Amino acid sequence: MTTDVIKLLPDSVANQIAAGEVIQRPASVIKELVENAVDAGATSISIIIKDGGRTLIQVIDNGCGMSPTDARMAFERHATSKISQASDLFSLHTMGFRGEALPSIAAVAQIDMRTMRKGDTVGSRLLISESQFESQEPASCVPGTNLMVKNIFFHMPARRKFLKKDSIELGHIMREFEKLALVNTNIDFTLVHNDVTLHQFMASSFKERIGSLFGKNAEQQLASINTETSLVKISGFIAMPRYAKRRGANQFFFVNGRNMRHPLFHKAVLKCYEQLISADSQPSYFINFEVEPESIDVNIHPQKHEIKFEHEQAIFQILTAAIKETLGKTQAAGALDFDADEIPDIPLFDPSSQATTPAEDFEAGFNPFSAEKEDYGSTLRQSRVVSSTVPRDWNKLYEDFERRKSDSFEELRGSSLNLEGNQKEDFESDPTDALFSETEPANNSGSCIQIALRYIASPSQSGLMLVSQHRAHLRVLYDRFYANLQSGNMSSQQLIFPEDLDLSPAQGAVLSANSDKLSQAGFAIEHVAESHWSITAVPAMLHKVSPGEALLGILESLEEESDNDAFLSAMALSLAKVGAISAGTVLSNAEMDSLLADLFRCDSPDYTPDGKLIISVLDSDELLRRFEGV
Q1: pLDDT of residue 357
Q2: Whether the model pTM is above 0.70
């Protein structure tokens, strides 16, 4: 007879399991605490962090506060004041509703909370450690809540070990702060890290908050969208097409005051820009949706990032129409900015002044096709006299045209492609074949041929070898960059004209924390203003690409790397992605041979550093199968 094996887990263990889904890193703690403060009616929220949130996360608000009993109940699982029955899930007007955030945080950290309701004379202080209540006592405090989360994951070495370095965790906190500040523009926000105030915002309009976070330049690049139907009200801003970015686009969706991700709506935005921006660019957007609470489901993701809409396809069409309307109004001449410095001087209207009729200056008898010289007066003699010496030898004229065209082609003959990204063309036959052919030029007379301007085909012992030219060059450059970074031999190229760059708070935090390593890699970057940076030098091997694009790519790759080797690898990969030749680049025979030779000198020529296939071989058996029966 076996004993029963199913047992009820202790609350502390259950809380830790729940915390694994809700609390992933310090940024998750800040999100939950700030949303609680918003639900409490706060008009001012201060966030204080130390060591990237590893040592301390403190959120202070001036909301309604809690009674001693409510303060104690708030840390019980599934205890909430926001819903009381299942049907309330479909009429939510608050950020939180599950009653899981505070007990999950208490399960992975030490809690010190002081809270008092408005009108009370004394508040309450609670101390909690690893889900265990240590004490609760009266305390003197101001109305609202002051909650400190100390030493996150202090009793879970494995989880604490996987926290990234402080600069990376700070970057995640900054991105979460951006979302919270954008969606709650009616609230004052302060963010302090290691006793340094990073942001301090007063309540403002949505557009002013965007400018405060991402710089005044970002604010000036936006055009507003606004439409209202029986299903949804859509408002916000989209960037004009000429300001689309290859990297670092700011893209935010909000629904009923909640941040969200929605791939279908993102696709709707990109669809509107298809014919206006290049395929590798992304537009910035800040779009609010207001719908009836019962028409959405926010309870499908542990962190409530993904939201299901009842009328998804209809809203897709409404969003598309609203964006196209705005782009149609602003694309031709750009949005009007009445605060611009260069405003045209418009004279004041004077009702007493007399309007004058413009003078007419024309000659009714003028014939521009007349071959004879006629005198129409001294004032028109120089501009309206048709010379009788117009050349009539049309064959001679076209001979001269053909000669000059041939000379132009001779200047291009023999030019080649610099594999660092400078595209040229090698015309080995009639130059017009290369210029006007709808496919690649007929310059593949050697052992290699170029297919669809993307792949290099070359015979091999086992069959036919196909190589992705972009990925092959990326592999070659990565090995070269990584070796130079490890040895410290990255030379720097000074820019004649520095490139200015506006970075988000999260990107600025990552850049500041890694400035020394970026300097060792060959970058020279100066901090000009709060969100404004200036690039004065780049690695010499990248002198033919955009410094801003290169730096943004590196910052994106470095956000998740902590140890030095991973850091160098991520930086080398970012530099290689920027410098590698792209699909659509014409290669000469010599260039293809050189690229393949460099590729096969690499230690791992088959795959890129991020695991993508470079070489595919059609063996003899496969070729026989394809032609069987022909």
Answers
A1: 58
A2: no
